[in-house]
Amino acid sequence: MTTRLEKTIKRELELDGRLYTVQMGPDGVKVTEKGHRKGQELSWRAIISGDASLHQDLNVSLDATSSEGE
User: Fold this and answer.
1) Nearest to 55 by CA among 69, 41, 37, 34
2) How far, CA to CA in Å, does 35 sit from each of 20, 39, 60?
3) In this predicted model, what pLDDT tens digit does every residue of 30-63 receive, in sequence order?
4) How confident is the model at residue 19 (pLDDT cuts 50, 70, 90)?
5) Most distant CA pair in the chain, distance
6) In what order do the strands lie in the sheet with 9-15?
7) What average pLDDT does the structure give for the chain?
8) Are 42 and 29 contacting, i.e. CB atoms less than 8 angstroms apart?
9) From residue 57, how far is each of 54, 64, 70 by CA, in Å?
């Protein structure tokens, strides 16, 4: 049996020596660097539909293209 996600839960994550706050709630997921207000936010709809993966693939492609011109 799983528990329904009705309110936001927060967890701390350390990645590459930096601390982040991960918030998971009914609207989606938000990751913010500890001590900052703005962060990356994804709705559940974007994650489930694959839009998040598509966005990530596009960013990787753009990064590769911009590094070729240097």
Assistant:
1) 41
2) 8, 11, 27
3) 999 999 989 989 888 888 887 767 766 666 666 6
4) very high
5) 53
6) 9-15, 18-25, 28-33, 39-43
7) 85
8) yes
9) 5, 11, 21
- Residue 48's φ and ψ, nearest 5 degrees, are -70, -35
Indicate the domain borders of the chain: 9-65
User: pTM to 2 decimals?
Assistant: 0.69
User: Residue for token digits 């990064």?
Assistant: 63
Please give the Cα distance from 53 to 68 (Å, whole number).
Answer: 23
Contacts of 37 (CB under 8 A, 6+ apart): none
**Residue 53 is inside which H or E element, if any?**
helix 51-68
